[in-house]
Design goal:
The chain is an alpha/beta fold. The radius of gyration is 21 Å and the shape is elongated. The strands form three sheets. The protein has a seven-stranded mixed β-sheet with strand order 5-4-3-6-7-9-8, sandwiched between helices. Strands 1-2 form a two-stranded antiparallel ribbon. Strands 10-11 form a two-stranded antiparallel sheet. It binds glutamine.
Length: about 290
């Protein structure tokens, strides 16, 4: 059987089970140790039987037991970096890569060439803090917090494997930061409303502490915004990922705690409101401090 025929076979199984066919390509690359371009070159060739067996077994596991492909492989690529994942951390999502790109642009706009202190609240796999530090190794000094010891263990493994310099602190939200001050605060806190029904592939395999954000999904934004002034320098940036229907409420919360700031929301690639930024040190839309 060729690579192509095997991929088609897997796609058929996935479609039949109402699953995304993107899983097949990811698993095939993984089990054959191929890069995406190699796979196209190999398409018409015979797939080694042992690889084919392992691949189809993984497809079966994904379909029958609903195990996320990222858990079968043990990693996911995020912003081009390979992150170890397991059931103790949220699987990094594509939307979150967009948050990284925007934070890097804001760094350039407001702090270009300055050394800044950045904190990532609820770091999970470490994907935000680690990626931002890797992208600006000379300029971003990163600290990351999480309430879960086991998530931090994975985040530390990721920092080590990716050779990133991040200081990890265990504790609830801003609590472990004490009197430290930061220029940039990023967070993708748990934001699914408590009672919302979640697909079983997520509900059964990802840590609930990383998913649910209280009754309205805003619990952790309230928690962070109400105390953020204690950990931020005067001119600073707050960057949040959030639920697609929460932009207005979140902006209002941000206004309440940071009346002298520029606040705006951006859509993700799906066209949904997904990220809100608070730039402090503004008054009436004009920069107050500089
Ligand atoms: N910061 C991590 C991420 O963006 C974890 C987020 C979380 O656990 N809610 O993937």
């Amino acid at each position: 059987m060729t690579f192509k025929a095997t991929l088609e076979e897997a796609n058929k199984i996935l479609r039949h089970a109402n699953k995304e066919t993107s899983a097949a390509k990811l698993l095939m690359l993984h089990f054959c140790g191929l890069e995406p371009t190699d796979l196209y070159l190999q398409y018409a060739n015979e797939m080694p039987p042992s690889n084919r067996k392992a691949f189809l077994e993984a497809i079966r596991l994904h379909v029958e037991q609903n195990i996320p492909v990222q858990h079968i492989m043990g990693y996911v690529y995020f912003y081009g970096y390979k992150f170890i994942v397991n059931d103790q951390v949220l699987i990094p999502r594509f939307e979150t890569e967009e948050l990284v790109a925007n934070v890097l642009m804001l760094y350039d706009d407001y702090f270009r060439d300055e050394v800044v202190d950045l904190v990532d609240i609820g770091t999970g796999s470490g994907c935000l803090a680690i990626t931002l530090q890797k992208e600006e190794p000379e300029h971003i000094k990163a600290v990351a917090t999480d309430i879960s010891e086991s998530a931090l263990k994975t985040a530390k493994e990721n920092a080590l494997a990716l050779d990133a310099t991040v200081e990890f602190l265990c504790g609830d939200m801003l609590e472990p930061l004490e009197s430290r001050k930061f220029d940039i605060l990023v967070s993708n806190p748990p934001y699914i409303p408590q009672e919302e029904v979640v697909e079983s592939i997520i509900y059964d395999h990802e840590p609930h502490v990383a998913l649910f954000g209280g009754e309205d999904g805003l619990r952790f934004y309230r928690e962070i915004l109400s105390k953020a002034n204690t950990v931020l320098k005067e001119r600073s940036i707050i960057a949040f990922e959030h639920g697609y229907d929460k932009a207005v409420e979140l902006q209002n919360l941000a206004k309440k705690y940071f009346p002298y700031s520029l606040i705006y929301t951006l859509k993700d690639m799906q066209g949904k409101d997904r990220m809100t930024f608070v730039i402090t040190g503004f008054e009436d839309g004009k920069e107050r401090i500089r």
